[in-house]
Design a protein that fits this description.
- It is a single chain.
- The protein has a 9-stranded antiparallel sheet with strand order 1-6-7-8-9-16-13-12-11.
- It is α+β, with helices and mostly antiparallel strands and about 525 residues long.
- The two termini are about 20 Å apart.
- Helix 8 runs parallel beside helix 12, helix 10 runs parallel beside helix 13 and helix 12 packs antiparallel against helix 13.
- It contains 13 helices and 22 strands.
Length: about 525
C-alpha cells in the first residue's frame, strides 16, 4: 500500500469524523475548543466518533431512536496458515540478480515472481461486533440535537430533547479499568426505556446470563477459513430505578432513571507466542474480572480515572493558531468552508490534536501497535486487511509519537518489531543466505516476514531497516541510554548484519550494491522498453 494512499485514508478518516457531562465535582476540568461536534447523527461509519483505550475501541454513531456502537478489540484476527518461505528461493534471488546485472529487468521480475514471492493471504483484522440499542422515546419532535467528541476527555457525548425530556448519552473506553462504559440518562425520572442487542456479521453466538448480562463469543475465521482467535465480549447493565429483564439474546430496560453499560472484551491471542494461544477459558475469565472490578466503582470514579489518565498524555502539548470565533459552528460546516478556500487556523489546530488523540487511543504500552486503521474497523475484510505495512505505513502512524510528546505510545511498535526478529532471521538465512533479520512489505499479528505478492511491492527486504530507525529516533528524543544499550543497539545491529551480507559487488565497477529489490510500488521502463520493478 502506498504512503500517499494511507495518508489520504487517515486524512479522510480524521476530517470526516472530525461538552461532556460527567456529574461529579471530582471530574477534571475540560479545555475549550478541543471538541469535534455535529448537529445530526452519523449516517455512515466514517462519520461516527472514535473512542479507545489503546486496545478496546468503539465508533459511536449518535443515533436517536436507534444507536449503534461498533466495537473493536485489537487482537480480533483471522488466523493461519501464514506465508511461508518458498523452497529454492535463494536460487531465485541469485538468478534475478544476475539478470539485473545483464540489464534484463523484466526477466528478473519474472524469476522473482516464479521462485521467490509467495501468494498473498486473504486474512484480515476484523470488527468485534456491534451493540445496538433501540429506544422508546416520548411523543414529540426531536430537537436540540448535539453530538460531540471531546479530545481532552476522550468522551463521546450525544444529547437531544424528545418531547419535553432531555436525554444524554456518554461513551468512553477506560485505559484504567479496561472496559467500554456507556452512560444513558434523562432529566426526568423513569424515562430510560430500551432494548439492547449484540451481534456480529459472522462467527458468533449470543446469549444472556442472569437478567443483566449479554455475552457474545466465537472464533474468528475469514469466510469460514483461516481460523484465528477465540474471543469473548460481555456487556453488563446496571440501572438506577426501573427494571431489567433478559430475553434469550436481549436485555430490556423499562422506565429507568439512568443506566450504565460496561463492556469487557478479550481473546486468546498470546503476544508472547501467537501460535500457542492462551487457555480456552482465558477470554471469559478476563471479561469476568474486568467487569467485576469496574462495577465496584461509581460511574463518577470510572469517569474521573479515565479522564485523568487520558489527560496525562494528551495535555502535554497545546497548540493555539487563533481563529477561535468559528468554534460555534459544527465541524463538518467548518471543513466545507475550508474546502471552498476559507481560512480556519483553529480547525488545523483541532486536526493536529485529533491526530495525537487517535494515537493515544490506539497505541498504549502493552498493546499491539496501531494498524492501518488504528484499532477502528467495521469490516470482516478490511481494506488492505488493516494489517502492518512496513513499507512506510506503520512508520507513518508513529512519526508523531516523539515530536508530539507521546513517546510511550511508541512502545507497542518497538515490542512488535522485536517480536519479528526470530522470523526475520529465518527469512534472512533461508532466502538470502544472510545474517541478521529482514522484514518485507507487510506482516500481521502472526509475525511472518516472508515476501509475498508482485515484485512491484513484495520484493522489498528493507522493512527491518526502516522500522529500526524509530528505535534510534526514540533515543535521540529521550536520551535513554539503557534503551539504547538494551533495545536500540541490538536490533539495529541485527538489521545492519543483514545488509552487510546482502551487498554484492557490481560486475563492472566492483562497487557494492544491494538487490534485487524495488522502490516501494514504483516501476521503470528498461532499455528494452519493458516495464519492470526490480533493480540493484
Amino acid at each position: 500500500m502506498s504512503s500517499s494512499k494511507v495518508f489520504l485514508k487517515w486524512c479522510a478518516f480524521a476530517f470526516i469524523s472530525f461538552c461532556v457531562n460527567c456529574p461529579a465535582a471530582e471530574i477534571p476540568e475540560q479545555k475549550d475548543g478541543l471538541a469535534l461536534w455535529y448537529n445530526k447523527p452519523a449516517e455512515k461509519w466514517e462519520e461516527a466518533l472514535p473512542v479507545g483505550n489503546g486496545r478496546l475501541g468503539a465508533m459511536v454513531f449518535g443515533g436517536v431512536q436507534q444507536e449503534r456502537i461498533q466495537l473493536n478489540e485489537e487482537s480480533v484476527w483471522a488466523g493461519p496458515p501464514v506465508p511461508e518461505i518458498r523452497a529454492g528461493a535463494y536460487e531465485g534471488i541469485v538468478g534475478a540478480r544476475n539478470l539485473i546485472f545483464e540489464g534484463k529487468y523484466s526477466e528478473a521480475d519474472g524469476t522473482l515472481k516464479k521462485k521467490v514471492l509467495g501468494s498473498e493471504m486473504g486474512r484480515s483484522y476484523q470488527t468485534l461486533g456491534d451493540i445496538n440499542m433501540i429506544f422508546s422515546l416520548p411523543q414529540g419532535a426531536v430537537s436540540d440535537y448535539h453530538r460531540s467528541l471531546n479530545l481532552d476527555t476522550a468522551i463521546a457525548t450525544t444529547t437531544f430533547k424528545a418531547g419535553d425530556i432531555t436525554f444524554t448519552r456518554e461513551v468512553f473506553s477506560s485505559p484504567i479499568d479496561q472496559v467500554l462504559v456507556i452512560q444513558l440518562s434523562a432529566d426526568k425520572p423513569g424515562s430510560v426505556t430500551l432494548e439492547i442487542q449484540m451481534n456480529r456479521p459472522a462467527d458468533f453466538n449470543v446469549h444472556t446470563k442472569g437478567n443483566n448480562i449479554i455475552e457474545m463469543q466465537g472464533r474468528v475465521t475469514q469466510k469460514g477459513r483461516h481460523p484465528g482467535v477465540k474471543y469473548c465480549a460481555r456487556l453488563l447493565a446496571e440501572t438506577r430505578g426501573g427494571k431489567i429483564t433478559a430475553g434469550e439474546k436481549t436485555l430490556n430496560i423499562q422506565n429507568a432513571d439512568s443506566m450504565t453499560l460496561y463492556l469487557a472484551a478479550a481473546t486468546d491471542y498470546n503476544r508472547a507466542n501467537p501460535f500457542n494461544p492462551l487457555p480456552e477459558s482465558s477470554p471469559q475469565q478476563t471479561c469476568t474480572k474486568q467487569l467485576k472490578d469496574a462495577v465496584k466503582k461509581s460511574y463518577q470514579k470510572l469517569c474521573a480515572g479515565h479522564i485523568a489518565e487520558h489527560q496525562r498524555l494528551f495535555r502535554r502539548v497545546s497548540l493555539d493558531l487563533g481563529g477561535h470565533e468559528k468554534r460555534n459552528k459544527p465541524t463538518n460546516e467548518r471543513l466545507e468552508e475550508v474546502k471552498k478556500g476559507g481560512s480556519d487556523p483553529d480547525l488545523a489546530a483541532l486536526y493536529f490534536q485529533y491526530g495525537r488523540y487517535l494515537l493515544i487511543c490506539s497505541s498504549r504500552p502493552g498493546d499491539l501497535p496501531a494498524n492501518l486503521q488504528g484499532i477502528w474497523n467495521q469490516d470482516m475484510s478490511a481494506p488492505w486487511n488493516a494489517d502492518y505495512h512496513t513499507n512506510i505505513n506503520i512508520q507513518m502512524n508513529y512519526w508523531l509519537a516523539e515530536v508530539c510528546n507521546l513517546s510511550e505510545c511508541q512502545e507497542p511498535f518497538f515490542d512488535f518489531i522485536e517480536a519479528l526478529v526470530p522470523s526475520g532471521q529465518k527469512t534472512a538465512k533461508e532466502i538470502y543466505h544472510c545474517r541478521g533479520f529482514t522484514v518485507h512489505h507487510t506482516t500481521d499479528v502472526w509475525l511472518w516476514t516472508a515476501p509475498i505478492g508482485e515484485p512491484l511491492w513484495g520484493m522489498w527486504p528493507m522493512g527491518a531497516a526502516w522500522c529500526t530507525q524509530h528505535f534510534m529516533e526514540h533515543y535521540r528524543f529521550t536520551g535513554d541510554k539503557q534503551f539504547l544499550a538494551k533495545r536500540a543497539y541490538p536490533i539495529l545491529k541485527e538489521a545492519s548484519l543483514f545488509f552487510l551480507d546482502y551487498l554484492v559487488p557490481e560486475p563492472n565497477t566492483g562497487k557494492l550494491v544491494a538487490g534485487p529489490a524495488i522502490s516501494p510500488e514504483n516501476k521503470f521502463i528498461g532499455p528494452d522498453g519493458k516495464s519492470a520493478a526490480s533493480d540493484m
